[in-house]
Amino acid sequence: MEYFEELLRKPSIFKDESKLDITFIPKKLPHRVKELSLLSQLFLALITNPNSVSRKILITGKTGVGKTVTVKYFGKILVAISSKRDLNIKFLHVNCRKERTSYKVLNKIIRLLDSKFPKRGFSSQDLLDILIDLLNHQDLHILIALDELNYLINKNDDLIYSLTRVNEGAISGKQRISLIGIVRDIICLNNLDNSTMSTLQRNIIKFSTYSKEQIFDILKYRTNVSLHKNVISNKMIEMISDITFNSGDVRYGLNLLWRASKIADSKNLKYITTDCIRLANQDLLPFSTSDVLNYMNNEQLTFLLAIVKELGKGDKIEISLSEVLKRYYIICENTKLSPRSHSQLWIYLQEFKKNNIILINVISEGIKGRRALIKISDLSLPKLEKNIIKLLNSNGLII
């Protein structure tokens, strides 16, 4: 307990460090006014003609350009303005990478409306029927934001089709569901049927990448709400902005700012220095990669660790799958983890590739068949290894 007491007595650079968390929804969104205005225009009919229209919008743009935070911010103001007019509208955010299947997405939607609803025991069609009954009973219209929608499209587009058509069969004639789909690239829509694709392509909002100056404005605003006055200079914010601009992901900048502030606190400094920023940047991965790692289970992390360790051995450019497997079996033996089958490991490889962690080059060897060569070119191996081991340790697997 004395450790906490000592830390609580120490002065801190932070005023409110929660406001540097990527899940925090700020009161202002610098440089996304145009997108918020467009969303307001598209969804205005939900206010002016309650339950008479349904909107389906698609938002696209690279990682870290503010898609999710803008949609969540818009959801808050939509619910607030609806409440003022005694309209029953709710905003629900569902991450499709986390939920993965139509069943899990539907169950999540219902549980956001009714926390006591059971997680199992129904078919997907049952869940859809239950959802409609629930909305009719509560006289409720919901705006569902399906984040990282491509993860659902790549597996099964039945739910997307059902949600875009569910209002058509409404006996009451009332429109109960509107949608916002969030994807990095609209090319994933090619996996949908023509009817669903046509519906989603009617209204597309593309988020452009932030300029260096815009990133500075965003980070400056966050420092104002999260840190005490005079603890970080504009020069230091510019330094973080430069690093963030190169990564292309504002979330990376927020994480870097938070870590640099933590380092300054740990050193009992009164302000953030260039050394704090450099130290913070040493162990940081691109946020998109960190996000992917956080969703992996121990089996996936262990297999990826085998790839990273084998590539780091002797500074290799690429390695064969057989080399990875040797390293993987050693790690499994040391950690008492049961090795996955070859077919399952191949699925893991494809997922790593899809998430831009590895590159796979399949070469033909004539009669001998084909051989897969694996490499990691865009990520720091020491950083990647350190982050994987940290996650495994936090999951109870000591490496």
From TrEMBL:
SMART domains: AAA (SM00382), Cdc6_C (SM01074). Coiled coil: none annotated. The keyword Mitochondrion does not apply. InterPro entries: AAA+_ATPase (IPR003593), AAA_22 (IPR049945), Cdc6_C (IPR015163), Cdc6_lid (IPR055237), ORC1/CDC6 (IPR050311), Orc1/Cdc6_arc (IPR014277), P-loop_NTPase (IPR027417), WH-like_DNA-bd_sf (IPR036388). Residues 304-388 form the Cdc6 C-terminal domain. One of its GO terms (molecular function) is ATP binding. Residues 53-222 form the AAA+ ATPase domain. One of its GO terms (biological process) is DNA replication. It holds the Pfam family AAA_22. PANTHER family: CELL DIVISION CONTROL PROTEIN 6-RELATED, ORC1-TYPE DNA REPLICATION PROTEIN 2. Belongs to the CDC6/cdc18 family. This is Cdc6 C-terminal domain-containing protein. It comes from marine sediment metagenome.
